[in-house]
Design goal:
Layout: H1 96-103, H2 117-121, H3 126-131, H4 137-140
């Protein structure tokens, strides 16, 4: 299966698809389902993968050069050896070990969004790196303590931190 520039795969369902070595360069995938798909050595150069569900994917050696992965869910996916120069992962949800591995070699700036790959991954920002995306705190952060020691929130600050 080979796809070229200007191909639209919006909201398409690629669940469990065999996408090995396919060319999706420039493809628009907004809102597509790619969970459990195998995209070993697939080419996503310049693709728009915003808001896609990419859970449990095999993405080893895939090329994400200048791709936009804003708000994508990549939990339990394997991006080992993936090329990510210029990719924008802003508000994407990745497992912490995967994010740390990508930060070791993340570089470039996305030409479409102007976002640095390192910044979009939260590289070097311990709080963001520790818990993932601020847009999905329930998926990636420890639960907040809801009440103070007396069972009430502090109305002046809005904080509900138990002692």
């Amino acid at each position: 299966m080979s796809m070229r520039t200007s191909v639209f795969c919006r909201r398409a369902n690629f669940t469990s698809a065999d996408m090995r070595e396919s060319d999706f360069s420039g493809c628009t995938f907004n809102g597509a389902y790619l969970e459990k798909a195998v995209a070993y050595k697939a080419n996503f150069t310049g693709a728009d993968l915003s808001d896609t569900l990419m859970d449990r994917m095999v993405l080893n050696d895939a090329n994400f050069t200048n791709a936009v992965l804003v708000r994508s869910v990549l939990t339990r996916s394997d991006l080992g050896g993936a090329i990510i120069e210029g990719a924008d992962f802003s508000d994407a949800v990745l497992d912490l070990p995967q994010k740390q591995a990508l930060c070791k070699y993340a570089s470039g700036t996305n030409p479409t969004t102007g976002e640095s790959t390192r910044k979009s991954l939260g590289c070097g920002n311990s709080r963001r790196s520790a818990y993932g995306s601020p847009s999905s705190p329930l998926l990636s952060a420890p639960p907040e303590k809801l009440l103070d020691r007396d069972g009430f929130c502090d109305q002046s600050t809005g904080l509900c931190d138990a002692n």
